[in-house]
Amino acid sequence: MDSVSSASAGFSPRRDYNSKPLDDSRPRGHIRVSAATENREAPAYPPITHRLLARRLFPGTRRRFLLRLTRSSTQLQKIQSAWKALLAELALTPEAEKALCSLDVGKLYGYLRSGDLHAYEFALEHLGQNLADCDVPEEYAVAALGLFFEICLCGLLGEAREDKEYALGLARLASVSQLFLASGYAGHRAAGVQVLEEKLRRAEERAEALAISVSEANEKERRRLSSDLHDEIGHDLVVLKLYLELITTDVPDSIDSEVRKKLAEAISLASRAIEAVRRLAFDLGPGIFDECGFVPAIRNYARRFTATTGVKATVRVSHSKLRLQPRDELALYRVLQGALSNVLKHSKARAVSITVKRDAKSAAMTVEDDGKGFNAARKLRDARASFGLQAMRERIQLLGGSFQIHSPAMQVGKKRYGTRIEVMLRLTQAETK
Q1: What is the model's pTM?
Q2: Which listed site, 139, 180, 264, 400, has its alpha carbon 20 to 30 Å from 376?
Q3: If you write DSSP's letter for every residue of 174-243 in order, what string do you get?
Q4: HSE-up of 142 (CA within 13 Å, CB side)?
Q5: pLDDT (tens digit per residue) in 111-142
Q6: pLDDT of residue 34
Q7: Residues in Cβ contact with 397 at an 8 Å cutoff, skipping those fewer than 6 apart
Q8: Among 87, 52, 64, which residue's Cα sits nearest to residue 180?
C-alpha cells in the first residue's frame, strides 16, 4: 500500500474501490440445494479450539500475502486514524474506546512481517483478556477489530485491484484475528469461573466448619443442661419425695384419710417428675456414653422406648464393644432418637429394628419399622414437614456420611411396607486402627 493515491488515502470503508465483483463467474441470487443434499446428515466434526480453527481458515499461501500486506506499514498512522474515527460509530464508553485503542498495530504488523503467527495470536489473546478486564463487551471488541481490517481492505484493494487473492487472504486474516481475540475473552471467562469456583469451595468449607462448630456448641450446651437437670433439679425432686415419704410415716393414725390421700398423690407426682427429669437429662446428654459405651447407650434407649411406648424395639450390633469417634457416636445416637420419635408420631408401627455394624472402612446404622410408610420424596420436598428428617440428614452429611430413606407407602396386597433409614459414616484413620 506504499503507492496508495491521495484519493484513497482517506481509507473510507464506504467507498467502492473495485467496481467489479470479486468473482464474475459465480451466479448471483439464492443457491438451490437438492433434496438429496437437504436430507444428508451433517458430518460429526470433532470439537476444535480457536487456535486449530484459525489454522484451518488461514490461507496456505500466506507468505506472499503477508509480504504484500506488511508493505503497508508506512500507512499505519493513516490506517489507525481512520479506524479510530470509525470506532465512534460503536458508541463506546470512553474507557472501552481507550482500551481498544491500546492495540499496538505496529507490533502486530511486525509479527506478520516476520511470520511469527504465534506471537500475533498471543498479542490478540492478551488484548482480549485486557478488554474483558475493562468490561468491554466481546461483540464490541470483535466489531472494532473487524472495522480495522475493513480499513486495511480498502488500502489493499487500492494497491492490487486485479489480484483478488489478497482480498480473500485479508478476509481470512480478519476471521482468525477475531477468533484469537475471542479466545482471549474465553480465557478470561475460564479464569473467572475458576476464581468463582475457588471462592465457592472456600465458602462451602467455611459454612461446613461453621455448621460443625454450631453443632458442637449445641451438644455442649445440651450436656450442660442435662447435667444441671440431673444434679440440681433431679436432686431437689428426690429430696422432696424423701421428705413427703417421711411426713407420711410421721403422720399419726388419727389424721384425716383425705390428707393421707393427698400425700400419696404428691409422692406419686414427685416420682413421675423425677423420672421425667431423668429421661430428659438422658436425652439431652447421653452420659451413659462415658460410663458404659456406645452400644449400651443404644440398647438402653431402645429398652426405654419399648417400655414407654409399647412399640417393640430390637437392637442388633456386629460388635458388642463397638466404639467410634465421639462425634460419630453422638451423630448416630441423635439419628436414632429422631427416627424413633418419627416411628412413635407417624408410623403406627408395632415393631422397629435397629442394626449397627462396622467394617474396615465404615460404620452403618439401619432403623426399620413395620408402619404405614410414606412418600419420602414428597415429604423431603416440604421443608416444614420434613424438618426433623432434614436435620438428621444434614448432621450426617456434615461428617461426610450418607443418609437414605426408603419408605414404600402401604398398599392393598403389598407385603412389604414401612420405613427404613440407612446411615453410613466413613471411619477415620484413628478408628480403623
Answers
A1: 0.51
A2: 400
A3: HHHHHHHHHHHHHHHHHHHHHHHHHHHHHHHHHHHHHHHHHHHHHHHHHHHHHHHIIIIIHHHHHHHHHH
A4: 13
A5: 776 767 778 788 888 888 888 887 777 877 88
A6: 37
A7: 403
A8: 52
Q: Which residue ranges make up each domain of the chain? A: 44-200, 286-433
- Distance between the two ends of the chain, CA-based, in angstroms? 81
- What is the Cα–Cα distance from 409 to 357, expressed in whole angstroms? 27
Residue of higher predicted confidence among 213 and 159 = 213
Contacts of 273 (CB under 8 A, 6+ apart): 237
pLDDT greater than 90 at residue 354 = yes
Q: How far apart are CA 279 and CA 304, in angstroms?
A: 9
Q: Is 373 within 8 Å of 409 (Cβ atoms)?
A: yes
**Whether the Cβ atoms of residue 330 and residue 218 lie closer than 8 Å to each other:** no
Name the burial class of residue 14, with classes exposed (0-12), middle (13-18) and buried (19+) by CB atoms within 10 angstroms of its CB: exposed
CB 352 within 8 A of CB 313: yes
The CATH code for residues 286-433 is: 3.30.565.10
Asked whether the predicted pLDDT for residue 313 surpasses 70, the reply is yes
Residue with the three cell numbers 458430518:
43
Give Cα 348 distance to the centre of its chain: 39
Lowest mean pLDDT among 115-129, 256-270, 294-308, 402-416: 402-416
Beta bridge partners of 425: 363
Whole-angstrom CA distances from 205 to 199, 200, 216, 391 are 10, 9, 16, 19
What confidence tier does 45 reach under pLDDT thresholds 50, 70, 90?
very low
CA angle 188/193/198 to nearest 5° reads 125
CA 285 to chain CA centroid, nearest Å:
35
Q: Are strands 420-426 and 362-369 parallel, antiparallel or unpaired?
A: antiparallel
Q: Is the pLDDT of residue 161 over 70?
A: no
- Could you give the CA distance from residue 427 to residue 433 in angstroms, rounded to a whole number? 10
